[in-house]
Amino acid sequence: MNIEWHTFETPSALADALAAAVAGELSAAVDARAGALLAVSGGTTPRLFMERLSEAPLDWEKVTVTLADERFVPPSSDRSNAKLAREHLLKNRAAAAIFVPLYSDAGDVGEAARLAASRISALPLPLDVVVLGMGTDGHTASFFPDAANIGDILAAEDGPAVLPVISGTAQEPRLTLSMPVISGARSVFLHIEGDDKKAVLERALAEEPPLPIRAVIERTAVPVRVYWAPKG
Ligand SMILES: O=C1O[C@H](COP(=O)(O)O)[C@@H](O)[C@H](O)[C@H]1O
């Protein structure tokens, strides 16, 4: 499997190392292409990493930040991944970054996905860096195993850059970057913490049928760098 494990003793040590690795990739992208594209995940895990990355000495005005996925909730909601990024990443030195949200105040999640897809497709893809998370059900981005369209989402070779997802286990409709956009990134990191997530990932890598996280690892052109630490 196309995977590299990086194990840390604490979430703090992980956050330092992950922020340094991501900053290194972004800096190389700015040097090579005069700009860098970063997609970060939401949920509860990335806060400390985001805090550390926000202080990285980068040419942040040349960095565009977006999200791997978003909940279909307004940016004021505590469930909003954009709110998480604004509060923990887009500050300090990273306040100068350009942020491209996935959410818009559209009538429904399908329309919001179409609007987000046109914003993402206008970027100079591929992404330089995507930092994924994973739930204990094996979902990554908003590729939920129980979504009605999960087979199509995981198998997609092209199509819109952002897709709507309806899942019974997600609390709200979702917007997610597509499989081609995620798996085509120049660098792919997977940030997970805790023995439960490590066990889920190990099981996903060993068993068929594949959970979404395994499908992403199999499709990704570059090795997925897994950053893991026990829970703090
Ligand atoms: O809902 C989501 O869940 C996953 C994992 O979140 P966590 O709270 O277990 O860290 C996250 O990667 C994704 O971006 C988010 O929308």
Structure write-up:
Pathway: Carbohydrate degradation; pentose phosphate pathway; D-ribulose 5-phosphate from D-glucose 6-phosphate (oxidative stage): step 2/3. InterPro entries: 6-phosphogluconolactonase_DevB, 6PGL, Glc/Gal-6P_isomerase, NagB/RpiA_transferase-like. It catalyses: 6-phospho-D-glucono-1,5-lactone + H2O = 6-phospho-D-gluconate + H(+). It is an enzyme of class 3 (hydrolase). The protein has 232 residues and is of the alpha/beta class. It has one domain (3-200, 218-229): Rossmann fold (3-Layer(aba) Sandwich), CATH 3.40.50. The protein is built from eight helices and ten strands. The protein has helices spanning 11-33, 47-53, 81-88, 109-121, 150-155, 179-183, 195-206, 212-219; strands at residues 3-7, 36-40, 63-67, 69-71, 98-99, 129-132, 162-165, 174-177, 187-193, 224-229. Strands 1-10-9-6-2-3-5 form a seven-stranded parallel β-sheet, sandwiched between helices. A three-stranded antiparallel β-sheet has the order 4-8-7. A hairpin with an 8-residue loop joins strand 7 (162-165) and strand 8 (174-177). Helix 1 crosses helix 2 (47-53). It starts with a strand and ends with a strand. The mean pLDDT is 97. The site of the ligand O=C1O[C@H](COP(=O)(O)O)[C@@H](O)[C@H](O)[C@H]1O has 12 residues, from loops.
